[in-house]
């Protein structure tokens, strides 16, 4: 099959600017696959007109941006050769055809990498977009040890060789794009950024992003870990307080509380957070080593804060637990409960 540049455009309840976007992509020489993500009869006229320049695939109901991208990728995977290049483009006019073409060229040069069109988020950017992207950037860096400046860009290019990897990434709505970055970082698939023009139309009013629910979906993994860690913290802190009240012994109270809370934390994380299917004996032994290392560091830190610096025992315990949270998460996620293939 001939190598092609293919623009994949997911769309839900589009405005007429979608037709301008498609014309620009067509003029640049790209083939276009457009996904109508259940927009309904009211928008049929726009998609009918779009069918003259794009292959239009439709969902009966709204399934989400991730599902729309997967529908398009499945079609491209079956219809085109593995040497083709795909670029995902939003249909609201915020991505230029010139930038999409630039990303396609880079994807040909780096066929085993994901290419991101990175926006300059300093000037003329809506506050909610700037704040959201900044938070996501730091959360992503903390959880993957990988730096991506614009984690929320929808302009992404990749070789068709990566389609099998992209199709198995979980998520059907806005969280899918974040999940791709998480999964690719875990699998050591390169992620390359190149700067593109930053365009926001009417303060991004056309976006269907739900600030509450889509943010929850995006941050779900770290939120789950935070909830389990908070449960472990409650068990640890309450038992520590009780033992300290009964015995007055700082070392005994901390060690006893950590042993019980570690057992609770291991069970919850294995079954509900990371959903690990790995061997029980191996993960238990790894977790035990982690727990001992954390206990040692935790106890030394506690002793330093209380006996050297003079901080109150209860406040010192709280500060120590916060300090060890991210270390604990990273080791469990990437070493103890890592998924097969990572």
From TrEMBL:
Residues 9-133 form the Glycosyltransferase 2-like domain. CDD domains: DPM_DPG-synthase_like. The keyword Membrane applies. Coiled coil: none annotated. Keywords: Membrane, Transmembrane, Transmembrane helix. The chain crosses the membrane at residues 246-266, 287-306, 318-336. One of its GO terms (biological process) is protein N-linked glycosylation. One of its GO terms (cellular component) is membrane. It comes from the Bacteria. It is found in: Membrane. Residues 224-337 form the GtrA/DPMS transmembrane domain. It holds the Pfam family Glycos_transf_2. It is a multi-pass membrane protein. InterPro entries: Glyco_trans_2-like, GtrA_DPMS_TM, Nucleotide-diphossugar_trans. Gene3D superfamilies: Spore Coat Polysaccharide Biosynthesis Protein SpsA, Chain A (3.90.550.10). This is Bifunctional glycosyltransferase family 2/GtrA family protein. It comes from Bianquea renquensis. The lineage of its organism: Bacteria, Bacillati, Bacillota, Clostridia, Eubacteriales.
């Amino acid at each position: 099959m001939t190598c092609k540049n293919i623009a994949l455009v997911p769309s839900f309840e589009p405005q007429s600017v979608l037709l301008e976007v498609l014309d620009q992509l067509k003029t640049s020489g790209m083939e276009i696959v457009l996904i109508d993500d259940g927009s309904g009869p009211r928008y049929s006229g726009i998609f009918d007109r779009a069918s003259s320049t794009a292959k239009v695939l439709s969902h009966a109901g709204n399934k989400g941006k991730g599902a729309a991208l997967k529908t398009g990728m499945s079609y491209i995977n079956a219809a085109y050769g593995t040497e083709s290049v795909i670029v995902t483009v939003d249909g609201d006019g915020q991505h230029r055809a010139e930038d999409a073409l630039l990303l396609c060229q880079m994807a040909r040069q780096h066929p085993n990498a994901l290419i991101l069109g990175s926006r300059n988020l300093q000037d003329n950017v809506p506050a909610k977009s700037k704040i959201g992207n900044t938070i996501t950037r730091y959360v992503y860096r903390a959880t993957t040890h990988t730096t991506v400046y614009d984690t929320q860009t929808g302009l992404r290019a990749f070789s068709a060789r990566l389609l099998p990897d992209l199709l198995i990434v979980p998520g059907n709505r806005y969280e899918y794009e974040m999940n791709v970055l998480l999964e690719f970082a875990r699998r050591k698939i390169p992620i390359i950024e190149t700067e593109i023009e930053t365009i926001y139309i009417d303060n991004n009013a056309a976006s269907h992003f739900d600030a509450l629910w889509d943010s929850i979906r995006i941050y779900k993994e770290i939120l789950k870990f935070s909830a389990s860690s908070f449960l472990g913290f409650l068990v640890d802190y309450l038992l520590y307080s009780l033992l300290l009240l009964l015995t007055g012994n700082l070392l005994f109270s901390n060690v006893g509380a950590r042993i019980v809370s570690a057992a609770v934390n291991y069970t919850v994380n294995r079954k509900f957070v990371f959903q690990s299917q790995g061997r029980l004996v191996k993960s238990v032994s790894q977790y035990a080593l982690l727990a001992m290392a954390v206990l040692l560091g935790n106890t030394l830190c506690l002793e330093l804060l209380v006996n050297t610096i003079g901080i109150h025992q209860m406040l010192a315990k709280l500060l120590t637990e916060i300090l060890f949270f991210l270390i604990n998460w990273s080791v469990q996620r990437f070493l103890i409960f890592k998924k097969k293939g990572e």
